[in-house]
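User: Fold this; tokens only.

Assistant: Input:
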Amino acid sequence: MVHGFMRCKKVKEIVAKLKLKCFELIVHKLVSPVSTLKSCSCSWRVRIALHLKGLDYEYKAVNLRNGEHLTPEFQKLNPLSYVPVLVDEDIVIADSFAIIMYLEEKYPENSLLPQDLQKRALNYQAANIVASNIQPFQNLAVVNYIEEKLGADERLSWAQHHIRKGLVALEKLLEGHAGKYATGDEVALADLFLAPQIGSAKRFNLDLADFPLMKRLNDAYSELPAFQNAIPGKQPDA
């Protein structure tokens, strides 16, 4: 069980045993591996952070559909069997929010957090709406369980309901605060969470016309190389 630290050699041994495809291990130059699923919004937001910070990293993939995240080797990196996982030397971090905050504190250049405390709090709130109140309901394990118990139609209806509820809340929360991006004219933490979530909304067939701010932000993100280089379709296992 990994609670936070592992010897770098041991981590490398574990990573070497993983036959990864469809998920990814992300490793900064001075880092050891990280694991994520390319289409997973949690992994996606970490990739954006790495690109915005200008950090070199190694990408490897773990196939969730083949159960590679359930292997004893992967569970030594994350006992919960979720992605992403970041390995930086002997430090192992297995949560996207924690990973992003770790990167922000270790590499403060190109900061993701505004100096203004109100704006900073707004970023935390928007990020948490996505991380705590939308994404968990569209998680692969959850929607697969819904489909197994109630059928494919209910799977889609379930995901759409929870995504819609969250996006409606975000539209209201950010009204009067958004500029070119979610909380102003500079990219900040909230944007890293919103971009992948908007992508997930489209994947679950929600019409962005119902969410004008989200649509406008999505257009803005499409012009940023750091965001575009992080999209699932541009990953090595795409």
